[in-house]
Amino acid sequence: MELDYLATVLLSSLSSASILLIATIGLAVVFGLMGVINLAHGEFLMIGAYAALTATQYGIPFVIAIPIAIAVTMTIGAVVEVLIIRRLYGRLFDTMLATWGLSIAFYQLAVLIFGTVTPGIGMPQFNLRIGNYSLAGYPLLMIAVAAVATVFVYVLMTRTVYGMKARAAIQMPEMARAIGIESARVNTLTFAIGCGLAGFAGAVLLPIVPATPSMGFAFVIKAFLTVVVAGPVTLTGSALTAVGLGGGASVTASFLTSVAGDAFFFLITAFLLWLYPLGITAKWRTKM
Amino acid sequence: MFRIVNATGGYGKTVIIRDVSIAVDKAEIVALLGRNGVGKSTLMRFAMALIPALSGHVEIDGRNAPEAPAKRAKAGVGYVPQGRYVFPRMTVTENIGVAAETNGHSGRLAVETALREFPMLRPKADDLAGGLSGGQQQVLALARALATKPKILLLDEPTEGVQPSIIDEMAGILKRINRERGVAILVAEQDLDFCLSIATRAYVMEKGSVQLETDRESLRTDKKLQQQLLGV
Ligand SMILES: Nc1ncnc2c1ncn2[C@@H]1O[C@H](COP(=O)(O)OP(=O)(O)O)[C@@H](O)[C@H]1O
Ligand SMILES: [Mg+2]
Q1: How many whole angstroms from B87 Cα to the centroid of ligand 2?
Q2: pLDDT tens, position by position, B119-173
Q3: Alpha-carbon gap, residue A266 to A229, rounded angstroms
Q4: In contact, A198 and A49? CB cutoff 8 Å
Q5: Relative to the alpha carbon of B16, which ligand is closest?
Q6: For residue B229, is pLDDT > 70?
Q7: Which candidate from B81, B90, B97 shows the least CB-CB separation from A287?
Q8: How far apart are alpha carbons B189 and B43 in whole angstroms?
């Protein structure tokens, strides 16, 4: 086997892993940090994709469409937190039911507004040549995007006053209030940030994954498994899991078949959860 | 300076404390004594607005205290709950820093001050608070409350489950903080010796009401009172 082929497989697998990580980061915040199982996470991703698509259709450049998608999904996320989620913290099953209903509503709304087929926006055309092979540049760029997004959330949550308040407010809402933190407001913002990250994912992946009402579904299962396997040190754990599981699945898929890739993903996930029921980071003594 | 006036409250429909009034003067240390289950912690939670007031209110410097706990904290009430409740997946430094920053003080300075004041936290500064021993968590909860620069500190059984050497150290620190910064303290306790060593006045609670207000001297000398009210 030639070296250039191997490099190509590794790079495109790392790129798939990064795409998974980008789709997962919002969940790492909402589920990992806040303990909320948001079954509408995939639909927030979809809303982000449509927001970006609609913006580009109005002639707005793609790079500006991305922050618009973030703003739209953060706003919807904040409203959802205030109307629904805040009444249900600590009630896992009720939250799942409520967000499941929400995901169906968002899906139907998307079908009504946009129909089931929508035009793609076309991949920005730049390629990377490795030996005899040529790789599309945009998916490779996602490796850097995933790295930057992960570092951004890590710094936001561990190095800023907001990040400390966010963790305090969700770990012990009452005690946080007793030292002056407006827990309710902080939790709204944190949930909105998680939704905004989903919107970011939908927007930034738009050239690779076209907007469809059901696109969220494609991501949400793997994203959830990634966060569950990650465990309590949610961000670092998710990054590791996404690279290990997503990357491994993609390598398997390139040498065998895409079915084998998925089989790899789910089997290793089951094995890891059997080995670490509370996630791979359950015993880590670090915070994010 | 700090007054709880006719406090009546509890959990849901169950009334636990009835018509309790307590006053703490500027820079005074007052003890709240009583056996287990008489409602000391409930009164502390009332004072912090963590339970709704069925009737009664709280005053700070003669003005009605805000109704929301976060605003009350910002108005100068520091709270150390019974059972510690430090933020477990945050470091010692972050526990102190977030309390200071939330109230508009420098987190870095607050951490420096706290580590100077409580040297036992120094080697643990970067550890997660959830991994500390009971005594260390208690000291951290105290350091966190002080980082908000309160006018009045509400301490709920600070000596519970803490080893004697640390209790002595804690008494010394509380007296110094009270003297140097003029922080008033209301401390709920079952440990009479600890209270006698720091407080100058005491309220004794029984069945959700204040039974008696007394000073240190009569509490120290009246063995019958001790027997009757505290079972010591
Ligand atoms: N969260 C709660 N819900 C319902 N009842 C409670 C709760 N906390 C305490 N109580 C009850 O309130 C009464 C007083 O408790 P507490 O205020 O903790 O007393 P103390 O602090 O003096 O030991 C007890 O009978 C206790 O069972
Ligand atoms: Mg108590």
Answers
A1: 20
A2: 989 999 999 999 998 888 999 999 999 999 999 999 999 988 888 888 888 888 8
A3: 11
A4: no
A5: 1
A6: no
A7: B90
A8: 13
State how far residue A13 is from chain B, nearest Cα, in angstroms: 33
The pLDDT score that the predictor gives to residue B231 is 62
Ligand sitting nearest the alpha carbon of B82: 2
pLDDT given for residue B160 in this prediction: 87
CA distance A163 to chain B (A): 9
Which are the contacts of B224, defined by CB distance < 8 A and separation ≥ 6?
Answer: none
Domains of chain A (ranges plus CATH)?
A: 3-122+129-275 (1.10.3470)
- Residue A285, pLDDT above cutoff 90: no
- Give the nearest ligand 1 atom to B42 CA: 17
Instruction: Tell whether B46 lies on the interface with A, counting CB pairs under 8 A.
Output: no
Q: What does the CA dihedral A96, A101, A103, A109 come to, rounded to 10 degrees?
A: -170
pTM as predicted: 0.87
| Ligand 1 neighbours (beta carbon < 6 A) | B 11, 16, 34, 36-42
A184 near B CB under 8 A:
no
Q: CA geometry: angle at B225 spanning B220 and B229, to 5°? A: 115
Q: Which of B33, B42, B54 to mutate to test the pocket of ligand 1 (most atoms within 8 A of CB)?
A: B42
Ligand 1 atom nearest to CA at B35: 22
User: Residue A167's closest chain B neighbor by CA?
Assistant: B90
Per DSSP, the residues of chain B read -EEEEEEEEEETTEEEEEEEEEEE-TT-EEEEE--TTSSHHHHHHHHTTSS--SEEEEEETTEEPPSSHHHHHHTTEEEE-TT----TTSBHHHHHHHHHHHTTS-HHHHHHHHHHH-GGGGGGTTSBGGGS-HHHHHHHHHHHHHHT--SEEEEESTTTT--HHHHHHHHHHHHHHHHHH--EEEEEES-HHHHHHH-SEEEEEETTEEEEEEEHHHHHH-HHHHHHHH--
Q: What is the homologous superfamily of the domain B2-91+151-230 according to CATH?
A: P-loop containing nucleotide triphosphate hydrolases (3.40.50.300)
The strand pairing partners of B214, in sequence order, are B202
pLDDT, tens digit, for every residue of B18-63? 888 999 998 899 999 888 888 999 999 999 999 988 888 899 888 8
Pocket test of ligand 1: the residue of B4, B8, B11 to mutate, having most ligand atoms within 8 Å of its CB, is B11
Which of A160, A179, A187, A233 to mutate to probe the B interface, most B CBs <10 Å? A179
Contact A287 B128 (CB under 8 A): yes
Q: What is the dihedral of CA B203, B209, B212, B214, to 10 degrees?
A: 10
Contact indicator for A178, B71 with CB cutoff of 8 Å: no
Minimum CA distance residue for ligand 1 atom 5: B11
Average pLDDT for residues A276-288, to the nearest whole number? 82
